[in-house]
Structure formats: C-alpha cells, structure tokens
Amino acid sequence: MAEKNIIEVSHLSKTFGDFTAVKDISFSVRAGERFAFLGPNGAGKSTTIKMLTTLLTPSQGSILIDGHNPVGDADAARHSFGIVFQDPSLDDDLTAWENMEFHGVLYNVARPLRRERIEELLRFVDLYERKDNYVREFSGGMKRRLEIARGLLHHPRIIFLDEPTLGLDPQTRNHMWQYLERLNRDEGITVFFTTHYMEEADKVAERIAIIDHGTIIAMGSGEELKKKTKTSSLEEAFLKLTGSAIREEEAGSVDHLRNMGRAWGRR
Amino acid sequence: MYIMWLREMKRFLRSKSRIVGALGQPLLYFLSLGYGLGAVFQAAGRGNYIEFLAPGIIGMSIIFTSIFNGMQVIWDRQFGFLKETLVAPVSRLAIMLGRTFGGATVAALQGCLVFIIMIPAGFRPYDWALVVPAILVMFLVATLFSGLGMMVASLLRDMQGFQLIMNFLVMPLFFLSGALFPLQGAPTALQDVAYIDPLSYGIDGMRSLLINTSNYSLGIDVAVLVGIAALFIILGSYFFSKIQV
C-alpha cells in the first residue's frame, strides 16, 4: 500500500487562450507522502492544484488521483481528497458547526458518524466551544483551522493545501503543521501543499517539486535540492533555481507599464 | 440537494434586515401607486386599482428576490464558497437544482409576506380558497426567475455586471409585464412585448386566482410558466456545469 503512487500526473498541460500556464509536467506522489509544491507567483501552482482537484479540466495529459481520473470519474476522485483553498471558502452566514455539517452531507457521511467526527475535529482544532458562532466572527487563523477540519471530515486519503499558512501567526502555523504531521503519521494521509515559506517546506515535506513558468525545474528532498544547487538553505536554492526577478501575476498589465516606466527612468 | 436548499433557507431566515428591506420597496409601490392612481383608475371605469395592483406587486417582490438569490452565486464565487461545493462529489445538476429551489422558496415566501402585508392595506382576494393555488403560481414564477438568475450568474464573473442586469433585464421584465397597468387597451407594441415577457403570465395567473380577472387564461399561464421554468433550469444547469473557477 505505502509504495503505491496516490497521485500520478503525466504530460499535463493547461493553456488559457495563447497563454500556457502549465507545460507538460509529470510527477507522482506516493501514498502517505508529504509533498511540497513550490514556485514563484504565477508559476502554475494553483492551476495545477485546480486540475488535480477537478476544478479545471486539463488541456492535455492525464491525472490519476487514488486511481481515479478527475475528468472522467470526477466524483470518485473528489471523494478521495480534501482541500484547503488559498483563499477562504467558508460560508460566513453559517455557524462553524453548520459549515461542517454542510460539507458532511455533501460528501455523504452518515449522520451519526458525521456528528461524531465533527465534534472530534472541532475539538481538535480548538473550535468546539465556538461551534455555534457565525464564521464571520472568526479571525483568519480560526477560519483556517475550521477549513482544515472541514477538509478532513470525509476522511480523504489526500489533503491538498494551497498556501494554507498565508497570513497565520507562527503559533497557529506551528499548531497546524503538528496536527497535519500527526495525521500523516497516524492515518497515512497524503499531504500535498504549496507555500511561500521555504523553511516550512524544508521542515515538513519529504519531497519538494519546484515549478516555474509552468514547468517543473527541480524535484527531490530538501537536502537534495540544496546539494544540487550548492546552497545552504532551501530559500537560497529556490532563488538560485528560479532567479530573483519579481513575478507578475495576471492582471499585471498596469504593473507592467509601471515597471517599464521605472526601467526607462533609470536609464 | 436538500442541504443546498436548507442553506438558502437558513440564510434567509437569519437576514432579518434583508427581509424587511425587501418588503419596503414593494410596499412603497403598492401604497403610492395604489392610492395615488386609484381614483384615476376608477374614473376610467377599470374598477379597483388596489386589487388590480396587488398581484403585480407580489410578482415584483418575487422577481427581485429570486433573481437576486440566483445572483448570489457570484458572491459565493467571490468569497470562495462556490469552490467548496464544486469540489464536492455531487453532480452539478443537484447543486444547481438545490440552489434554484432554495432561492425559489425564499422568493415565494417573500411574495407571501408581501401578500399578508397588503391585506391590512386594503387588499382582499375574491376567494380565500384560491390563495393556495395562487401560492403555487408564486412558487412557479419564483422558480423560473431563480433559474434565470442562476443562468446569468453563471455567465458573470463579478458583481460589476449586477447593475447592468438590474437595469436591462429585471426592470424591463417588471415594467413591461402588465404588473402596473392592464394590458387590455394598451398599445399593441406594448402588448406584444408583454407577450414575450414570462412575468406577464405569472402575474396574469395570480390575477386570475386572486381577483378573478385574466388577460390570457390560467391554463396558458401555467403552461407557459412551467415550460419556461424548465427551459431556464436546463440552460442554467448547462452554464453552471461550465463554470471553472
């Protein structure tokens, strides 16, 4: 079981019009692995995650999530993963409990089991006392915790986390990773995450893939990446691999003009 | 599907300010136009304007509420909640239907509230027993426009387009439907436009049940409403299934 690849991606591409966000990437993640997916802004991380999680259909290539194809067999694939999105995706007008309940019903978790798991998970993320509060009253960290709890409610085999620690304080971050590592150890759940905090990736992930301009430019353990680039930290390795130019994401045309203006001014 | 419906209900019952807010406008129309134009209407030999207007105002509150509810998909998209439902192992059709019927129930309830409020203001249905089928017509109208709202919302990316939809879709649908004036005797061009406006049939259906006057006929009204509601739901689910976040 542990040797099996739970995520298989081969020759995956995604184009939007004439812009290629992801170019012919291939990688696989073993079941029970902690896998980090790193890259500068606009490198194609989120696009890849969206394709893995059935939100976008690939232009080319194939994906297998726990043996299921997210395009042809979307519902089976959807059952096998949980996801914490980059930006919050809770319903602010429902309580913490109701958000969990909603998720549980959508994923067809039977009622008694649902009750039990919701309580257990809410206790785990320290939100049980706040279960009847509306989500809109929650702080950023609390929302994150609730989202993680929600993503785990249907006992997925993989959890995707798209920049889960963005804007969290070190305490919450630490707590969150401890929890995820424990789940990974005890339940064998596969953790697939993206982050901009290199030390976090280095500490947590067993294997790291670095993507830039839509292609995977390096893959291996943190040690391997450091050795390969002859650097002493993952951050330096990352910068060496991806260059230090600041990236523009979409809607950057104004920024682009500004940069050009700046470039001209300097001359 | 049921949970989507339940979510809409919970959100509705909790937003007290929205309920009251959505009652204000129809009531204002009802009182100002109803009493303001009542005498003129009577003098023109058309009978009681308050009675005539009431179903139109119910229709108004239903169309506004249901389209607005459909458009909430846009909010969900902006606040990310839509993604949560889209990665769930539930068919897009079930999500769409749950939301549509949730929105429709909310809108029909809103219509009933308007109806209740209009009673002390002077409105009397001619036969109380026909109020129940009238509520069914309200629900039908609400389903139709929730479907339309969903359809529009699936095609828009953000709230920028909302004003556009209000001004170029909802307001014309309302004003050209015969909600405020009788279509008999109106210029032919106006009658023709009303002819293709689904709300005309909804309001006509309510009129025939509540005040026993009708321009088309109840059978035609219901048939048209069911047909168009089905069409909008089919189109809505098609566009909804095409949403990529």
Quick summary:
The complex is a heterodimer of chains A (267) and B (245). By secondary structure, chain A is of the alpha/beta class. Chain A is 41% helix and 23% strand.
Layout of secondary structure:
The complex is a heterodimer of chains A (267) and B (245).
Chain A lengths: L4 E12 L2 E12 L3 E5 L6 H8 L7 E6 L8 H7 E4 L11 H11 L4 H14 L15 H13 L5 E5 L7 H18 L2 E5 L3 H7 L2 E6 L2 E6 L1 H8 L4 H9 L10 H14 L1
Parallel strand pairs in A: 3-7, 3-8, 5-6, 6-7
Antiparallel strand pairs in A: 1-2, 1-4, 8-9
Helix pairs in contact in A: 3-4, 3-5, 4-5, 8-9
Chain B lengths: L1 H13 L1 H28 L5 H30 L2 H6 L5 H27 L12 H25 L6 H14 L12 H8 L2 H13 L7 H24 L4
Helix pairs in contact in B: 1-5, 2-3, 2-5, 3-5, 3-6, 3-9, 5-6, 5-10, 6-9, 6-10, 9-10
In whole angstroms, the N-to-C terminal distance of chain A is: 61 Å
> What's the gyration radius of chain B in Å?
18 Å
Beta-strand segment tally of chain B: 0
Instruction: Write down the CATH class of chain A.
Output: Alpha Beta
Helical content class of chain B: over 70%
Structural class of chain B: mainly alpha
Largest sheet: number of strands, sense, barrel closure of chain A:
6 strands, mixed
Provide the number of structural domains of chain A.
1
Number of helices, counting only DSSP H or I runs of 4 residues or more of chain B:
10
Q: What oligomeric state best describes the polypeptide chains here?
A: heterodimer
Averaged pLDDT of chain B, please?
A: 86
How much beta of chain A, percentage-wise? 15-25%
Strand fraction of chain B: under 5%
Largest protein-protein interface = A-B, 31 and 22 residues
- How many strand units of chain A? 9
Global outline of chain B? globular
Order of helices and strands of chain B: HHHHHHHHHH
Q: Classify the secondary structure makeup of chain A into a structural class.
A: alpha/beta
**Quick check: average pLDDT of chain A?**
85
Say which CATH homologous superfamily of chain A is assigned: P-loop containing nucleotide triphosphate hydrolases
CATH-scheme architecture of chain A: 3-Layer(aba) Sandwich
